[in-house]
Design a protein that fits this description.
single chain, 544 residues, alpha+beta, Uridine Diphospho-n-acetylenolpyruvylglucosamine Reductase, domain 2, Uridine Diphospho-n-acetylenolpyruvylglucosamine Reductase, domain 3, Immunoglobulin-like, 3 domains, 10-stranded mixed β-sheet, 9-stranded antiparallel β-sheet, 10 helices, 36 strands, 17% helix
């Protein structure tokens, strides 16, 4: 694909008003629709090399886009909308799944505890990012894991305590990152009639409050609990119902809702929100925080009136950018001076792959770390540069290979017959050579080089430890097992980008030895029979 075009499905010149509940927004140069973590990472890398501003949107249910054209890329998560059952009461949910679709899937499965998500506008990624709550439910109460792609391309799993900070606040709101998937565990099974009844009650409550009368994003401001009453009550006391600014009007039924009643602009909505916030501060002595996410280029005074943090525009000091993952000033490769080593490239649990692998055993986690900067490693190519580690829970998740006999070589050609953790390296863009490494509890391992999918390189038809005497270190302990690689071994598989950045395609996988397969990062499609040798799907890890 041309380097001037996004490396995933995309559209040009998209009206952002069609991508947000408010029906407001200028035109975006690119709207991209990645369908996997690998495509998301590739898009971030491409966008940075192009020096474009980058924004992320779910369904636009809590977003107000600027009226100005957006000269960069808007990443839409709607292409990542799969739900996988990973346990009796547990689901792995991609970030692009609509909240209502998740509630309906829980109903189908007879699982209770997610009824509050029904007709809650938005997608699950946004719900996690802002710690959504309503009708007594809160996403932090059922979330057990959040998988996040950082702005610099690292992909890792985060624990709930790392993410959720309190009422409608998370660490993700203060860091350049994208929620790509979450693991949710619900309290128990429930008769479907009871689930349907609660879902119906929640819908009726929304209709009674006229939530859907006109385009809006629901509550404009968060509640300030120190005030002792909801923001809507404060605005009602201040006489805000019916207040208007251009085509924007405060709802007559809920004073914390601003409707796009008749062709409102972002300027109209934010001007009205700024007036409301000032009234609350001056007449009720209550400070309120905007709940809406502002994305794009706005007047500086407008954002300040709403209390929105922003980054000054390079060309016009009276205008500011808000809500971006990459700002126009953040061009080129990530600053290497800011990186600390070892640096995590990938970290998280394996997700089931294939029909038989939907419920991969919990507790098996992989971690891939860069041990030194590329510039330093290039000067010391024999030094270890990359470390791959697999946890080994108790009881073991892998079917054990026979124990090593005294003096027996741990390099084992037929290791795939048993439970193994696997790492693939190379095969950029699905082309060229790549490496496969396998490790198993107990000390056995194997490594093979391929010229193309499943076509072994010359001299590797029969795997031999002789190819790997240098540049590779193996370690086994009670907590798991790891393998480290020198820069010299990996350098042929590292891609140097036009902007000077470096990519290394990688993929972690595993087999328990009993037909259950896992991947990290996960893939969207699952073929039968399952096959990990698909270099075009490997994750493009960014090296600094």
């Amino acid at each position: 694909m041309s380097p001037s075009l996004p490396p995933c499905r995309f559209e040009r010149d998209v009206a952002l008003s069609t991508k947000a509940y408010y029906g407001i927004g200028g035109e975006a140069r690119f709207m991209a629709y990645p369908s996997s973590p690998a495509e998301c990472a590739a898009l971030l890398c491409w966008n940075r090399s192009e020096g474009l501003p980058l924004a992320v949107v779910g369904s636009g249910s809590n977003t107000i886009f600027s009226d100005h054209p957006f000269p960069g890329t808007v990443l839409s998560l709607e292409g990542m909308a799969a739900i996988r059952r990973t346990g009796p009461l547990e689901l792995f949910v991609e970030a692009g799944v609509e909240n209502t679709a998740l509630a309906e899937e829980l109903l189908r499965l007879g699982i209770g505890g997610g009824e509050w998500l029904y007709r809650l506008p938005g997608r699950i990624g946004g719900a996690v990012r802002m710690n959504a709550r309503c009708f007594g439910g809160e996403i932090s109460a059922v979330c057990t894991e959040v998988q996040v792609l950082s702005g610099e391309g690292a992909f890792r799993s985060m624990k709930p305590e790392e993410v959720f900070l309190g009422y409608k606040e998370t660490s993700l709101m203060h860091a350049p990152s994208i929620v790509l998937g979450v693991r949710l565990r619900f309290p128990g099974f429930c008769p479907k009639a009871e689930i349907e009844g609660r879902m119906r009650e929640h819908l009726e409550e929304r209709l009674r409050k006229h939530h859907f009368d006109h385009p809006s994003c629901g509550s404009v401001f968060k509640n300030n609990y120190s005030a002792g009453r909801p923001s809507g009550s404060i605005f009602e006391e201040l006489g805000c119902k019916g207040m208007r600014e251009g085509g924007a009007r405060v709802s007559h039924h809920h004073a914390n809702f601003i409707f796009n009643e008749s062709g409102a602009t972002a300027l109209d909505v934010l001007s009205l929100a700024g007036r409301m916030r000032r009234l609350a501060r001056e007449r009720a002595n209550v400070g309120l925080e905007l709940e809406l996410e502002c994305i794009g280029l706005f007047a500086k005074a407008q954002l300040e009136a709403c209390g929105v943090g922003a980054v000054a525009d390079l060309h016009d000091p009276e205008r500011c950018w808000a809500g971006l993952l990459e700002y126009p000033s953040s061009t080129g490769s990530p600053m290497q001076s800011a990186a600390a080593f070892p640096r995590i490239l990938l970290e998280g649990p394996l997700t089931g792959y294939g029909t038989a692998g939907r419920m991969f055993p919990s507790g098996v986690e992989v971690r891939l770390e860069q041990l030194a900067a590329v510039s330093e490693a290039a000067g010391n190519p024999a030094d270890l540069f990359l470390r791959w580690h697999t946890s080994s829970p108790l009881p073991p998740a892998f079917r054990a290979a026979p124990p090593l006999g005294e003096g027996e070589e741990p390099f084992t050609d037929t290791l795939w017959r048993y439970g193994v953790s696997e790492l693939f390296i190379g095969g950029g863009r699905g082309e060229g050579a790549y490496l496969e490494f396998e490790m198993a509890p107990g000390g056995r391992w194997v490594a093979i080089r391929f010229d193309a999918p499943r076509r072994r390189s010359a001299g590797h038809e029969t795997p031999s430890p002789g190819h790997w005497r240098e540049g590779l270190a193996v370690r086994f302990d009670e907590g798991g097992f790891s393998m480290s690689f020198s820069y010299a071994l990996l350098e042929p598989f590292i891609t140097v980008l036009a902007d000077g950045g470096h990519l290394l395609p990688v993929q972690c996988a595993a087999s328990t030895g009993s037909g259950t397969l896992g991947l990290f990062p996960w893939w969207r499609e699952c073929e039968e029979p399952s096959d990990f040798h698909r270099p075009g799907r490997f994750f493009p890890a960014v090296l600094l």
